[in-house]
Amino acid sequence: MNFFTSVELPSGLPRFVQSDELLLMGSCFATHIGALLADAKFRPDVNPFGVLYNPLSVSAALREVVSGRIYTEEDLFFFRECWHSPMHHGDFSSTSAEETLRRINTRLQAAHTRIHQLNCLLLTFGTSWVYEQTGRVVANCHKQPESVFTRRRLSVQEIVSDYTSLFSGLIVRNPKLKVILTVSPIRHVRDGMHANQLSKAALLLAIDQLHAVFPEHVFYFPAYELLLDELRDYRFYADDMVHPSPQAVRYVWDKFVQTCLSEDALEIMQESENINKALSHKPFHPESDEHKRFLGQIVLKIDRLNKKYPYLDFQNEKEICHIQLKQ
Asked: Is the pTM above the cut of 0.90?
């Protein structure tokens, strides 16, 4: 008997390997997937502006990455004893304007150097509700009073028009670029449940239209549907009943792996997991010759993988082995 409705995973999504250049931007769901990709020996650039929720803030951030913009103190504002950027998450804020600018510009320039070599751009939209200040959509309100902003919901056409322009420019510069769009399963309950559903619907409709405009370059991965349909139970949510639990994130990740990773990438993932499991082993006699031979075998396995896949980074694992061998 089947006790849940299965979500059909899309076919024809781009499959990539650890040597590919990846940039992930958007809600904290992008951060979760980025961390799991890093564990799988990918080298993703994840949220160079910090977590972003609405599509227009994501697109504005991407345009700044492309242009290689340099922030100055004029781009910041001082509030509650910290300097902030309305385009950035609070992780970039600091009591010093110089430090805030250093954090912002360092990340921005690092992303800029990679943007036109990307193989895949993965964007996760969280909400179509936006806050505007002096006619400009802000990425983060930094807990300023709601009265200083105008709040509204983006239309489907507004999102489609903005991203049609953005993707057209990116694809002309980089014809191999593939874009995977997702909608975050995190519910924005502050908007109210009905308003949240309308917000998600606008995002889903916009993505569908963008796929129709760029069928060879833009794809949709159903993270939203996997959580709401296959995992339709509050045990798959965190304590706030809004964010997915670690178990749910892992479930969606497993579906992502099935859909978007190549056979070589899966092999590397498995080998990497085996190495880390071996390193997590607690020896009864760490000073014994037997344990040293065990560590030597791990180093040999890493060397064989690096010979086959020179782009893999096992520096941390090798350092752990060498430190234990010297003890």
From this structure: yes
